[in-house]
Amino acid sequence: MAAKHDLPGNTSKDENDTVSALIEIQKCRVPQQKMRWIVENLECLGRRQSRKRKLNTDESEKPERPYWFRKEVNGFTDSNFVALSYTWDASEYETQNPKPEGHLIERRDREDDWESSVRNSVLERVTRYMQCHDVPLLWIDRHSIPQKKCKTTPCVHGECKQKRHALDAMDWVYSLSDHPVALLGRPIQSEDEIATLSAILSGALVKYQDGKPALDKDTEYRQAKKMLDLLHEITRDKWWRRAWTFQENYKAGLKMTLLIHHDPDLERAKRSTPSGTKAMFGVVPGELSIQSVKFFESATEFCLAFRQHHFATSEDEEKIIHILKTAGRYRMLLSHSTSMSGIIISDVNWRGVTEPWDRLAIIANCCQYATRLDAARLQQMEGNVASLDLSILALRLLNGEILNNEEAHVPDGTIVERMNDLFFDDFRAPKGAKKLTYNKGCRFFDVEFTRTGIKTKGHLWKLGETLRPPRSSPRLSQTSHKDKKQLSEYERTRLKQLSELIRAKHTSDDAGIVDCIKDFLEEDSFVMDDQGSFSLRYRRLMTKAVVRAMDADQTLSLGYLCDPEGEPTVARGIFIHDRDAVESDEPLSQADKDPAYVFTSLWSDEDVDEEYLANELDHHVSIGVRLSDDRSQESLQLYTQEWVLGLCFFTGVPTSDVVFPWPQLKTMQHRMSIADRIKDTFKRAESDYPLHVSICNNDVSTLQEVLGSREASFLLLDGDGCWGTPLHVAVYLDNIEAANLILQVGVGVDVTADSSAHEHRLSPLALAVRLGNQRLLWRLWQHLHSQEEESKANVDSCLFEASINSQTTILRALLSWKEWTTKAKSEALFWAARSWKAYSAQLLTTQLSFPQDVLDKALHHAVDFGPLIGDDFKLDYNGDDYLQQQLLIALLIDAGANPNATDHRGKSALHFLGSPNALNRSGPVVRLNETAIRILLSHNSSVSLEDDVSGANPLHAAAFGSNLNMLQLYLSSCPSEQISQALRSKNNFGETLLHYAAAGAKRDIVEFLLSQGLDVNGINTNGWTPLHCALTPARQGSQLNGFSKSTSEALEIAKILLLHGANPRAVTAEGWTPLHCLSLFASKKKENTELGQFVDNMIHRGVDIHARATFLFWNELGNVEPKYHYWGHEVQDRIQEPETSGAIVRFGYTPLHFSAAHGSISMAKASLDLGADPLSKDARGNTAIKIAANSLLLDDRPSTRNAIVKLLTEAAVT
């Protein structure tokens, strides 16, 4: 039995087990060694022409037996041969040897012949193809590769070694052949099937809607079902279910031809089926010839279209899944940001193979892995350390596939099933590159497993100052150079402009990149398209990406090469990133939403080896990374973030070793499948839960016996507290026989356990919807509606579950029922919007009618940022999520939602999108959804609507929570004559856009507003200036990374305001000075030089270090805790009416008291150093020492409490 391995988890035992196994497996790595001589000496067969029969030949004379001679050809120079793909076992439809005698094959010694072991039907079919297309030779594995194999391990026999080498290089045979041909088993049986297949290949029923395939609106189910059934029948054949034939088809690519047999009486129908000027199915007698890629594309297109149609049943969906698994076209199924490796490995593992360990070679061939694993040695490892699934994982990693090594959630299942969730899948191919092909090469090189993580080589770059390149001049011609690798004159000019900008702005230390660009341009002009190294080709590709970024006015950053310790040295790179920023002389920091570092590596197998075949896949990596805080290791530790394109020059700079630590995975409970967990729960519970146990064991006789007992009525309602009643368990385990028996005794499908917290008392009916178990769902639904008195107590939840779990097929079917309650329909739409399930919402809004208030409320759910619940519960968002949000907004407005509708607080959609709130203090990053904003603005959504809480409009929200680009986008919707007025808009408390931008620490917006003349000393109704707002920790989520602004960010904004004349002596109505505000920033560090200098500057400018102020405490659940996230008018509101928010008020607090209550050690230290009195008392007679010692806010920070009490006590003594 194979050893069971879990992926590294949060426990050291699991991690040690897996990492140890991977390190052991690594010892079995071998380089790809495909022998050139195998391909240079391919053993092919040619069929000897039959001798012409003489006129006087006796008619009774036996016909001549087919004879195949041998001929060796060089596959590199002579590719005019058929490479045959077929199954060694006959199809159920096939007669193995219609003739009594087999074909004769010449022996390798050329001295004799022997009867072929290949079925006559195979050789006859390929002969017809060869004769029709005038192809002289055939390569067929059974005869072209020596088949004798001894049982000695390792073997030194010549023929055994030749077989191993030939199998290793077999993928090259199908790639090089001009005529790769596959023989399918299931024949076409009628003229109607020919017409049906023709309609599929021509896309007769498929139309495109919004860029996606959909069936024509007039399509009848019967017609579409016939097509689906035929595709299913064809792809059920053995050829589609074997791993080796998968490799043969994949490697042959566009050249592979599928042959589907038909009876002779269908020849006329076949040849009369047109495709342009040619016959669609070719002219090979008895065969339909179809390009494999065409078949895959047409089948995929049709299945995707069928799946979207309302009449698809659960049986149809099962067939679609099968067809897409066997004949799915990857470029139509995969996101442009992912790698094909995952789906290739899944498809290979799904298919059958005689020797399971052959999958390693097949995967390596299809994924173009240069590093292989010795399967024989792996199987001989002691303790069965190297399971096949763990070896596949090791194979991927050793070939440079990139793990997403930040903390990640991985669902249940085996390692192979969970494998794709572990890998990085956010590649960004530059425009003009073939996306999936580019992604395939995104791999590390020279990988080694260590206890710490995955070691590799490359260059680390620190992103430096941002660049705003010059705009393109209209005089520059952008001549089209499609498919041209060399740079166009336009691209060369733009790169020179960027070079001049760098030269003008930077010192001689950074000017080295200017020389690099000059040398590169000279090399580009000298080396033609079809020449040059991979490094040159890659630099050309990246240059084109940089130029496109310049033309799109994207932000660029200089990249500084780092030494092995991670310290930046010289500028030698230019990187493109998504961060919206103005030009700045400050380097990017870790707090920015874009990475602060980029790791790059480049590798190509360009050396020509006379003995071995090259790998031919270039490796390139350019990924944003986070550096580990632990610098004690020999090599830097990096964590993946996002793909970052850039133009780099590192000639002469050696690579450095880095380590990508193993990921810490939050695996599901017990890392077991649901079925295994249920069975584990009840494996020793026969006496307590006999019905549950019999269902788990699929013990029908015991189940029937218990159902007939007196206790059955009680046991049927008995839940275990986790998995629910017996009917729930039957649904989980997809045990329809058990479900039928339970239903027969009269249990309702809406039953819930009497005493159970199971899934919020979810009914079995709703559970089937959640799980997508269509077969059981329709059985339960049928039972429900067969009852005389229909119980609808839990039926409404079905609509909700289908909506939030993206069960669109089920949802479409459920919507055909006309008795849903208004509440059920509304809740389904609300939760689809709240969970950003655009396709669910689209089904609901197109098939149901909703009143205005429901649509408006759904729109507000769609623009809010909260946990995305449902089938993929998560607290983070990716690019597809934002696309879903955009689609939701658009379709809800199209359905009638008012883009200017407001929620219960009077906030419109633009309020939310202008200042998106992050979910929690530890992340995630929330990206501004510019497209969603543009959709709203295009539908006349107003930026002047005031909310009911403070009278703030969307411009205030954008000033607080977005960036200058978004604010200007909002302003662009105003008539030009109203922009100045809009910039000076105030809320009901007199707070301007500058107050909001300062509170949100938006430097670019603050500088812009000051340039537009906004009053730097403007006060609100309780005396708050922008300076106070800048120095107060704004509410959680003011920054897009989920945190409040940092002390350094607050000081940065304050310095800008002071530079523009802000009054530091301004005091609020509560008595707060800028130093009171600054004292609310918690800190663990005792020394903060920047903070100390700022406090000193404030005191020298006249701010009173002993000024007294009113302080607000939060008194929730008995806590006495300062609610420091309030700023501006919010502070006064809560001081004036503390009972409404459970707060209490304290008077006579100095900045030092503020620091003591909140645990701001560095601010307390700075205040004490500059003369603050540690024994000064508040209005109740409490010193700062007593306030710190009794502050419940510090209960969970004992070290901070001890440190600040010690600091204050020492100051009081001296």
Automatic annotation (TrEMBL):
<dbReference type="InterPro" id="IPR002110">
    <property type="entry name" value="Ankyrin_rpt"/>
</dbReference>
<feature type="repeat" description="ANK">
    <location>
        <begin position="725"/>
        <end position="754"/>
    </location>
</feature>
<dbReference type="Pfam" id="PF06985">
    <property type="entry name" value="HET"/>
</dbReference>
<dbReference type="Pfam" id="PF12796">
    <property type="entry name" value="Ank_2"/>
</dbReference>
<dbReference type="InterPro" id="IPR036770">
    <property type="entry name" value="Ankyrin_rpt-contain_sf"/>
</dbReference>
<feature type="region of interest" description="Disordered">
    <location>
        <begin position="466"/>
        <end position="487"/>
    </location>
</feature>
<feature type="repeat" description="ANK">
    <location>
        <begin position="1147"/>
        <end position="1179"/>
    </location>
</feature>
<protein>
    <recommendedName>
        <fullName>Heterokaryon incompatibility domain-containing protein</fullName>
    </recommendedName>
</protein>
<keyword id="KW-0677">Repeat</keyword>
<feature type="repeat" description="ANK">
    <location>
        <begin position="989"/>
        <end position="1021"/>
    </location>
</feature>
<keyword id="KW-0040">ANK repeat</keyword>
<feature type="domain" description="Heterokaryon incompatibility">
    <location>
        <begin position="81"/>
        <end position="248"/>
    </location>
</feature>
<dbReference type="InterPro" id="IPR010730">
    <property type="entry name" value="HET"/>
</dbReference>
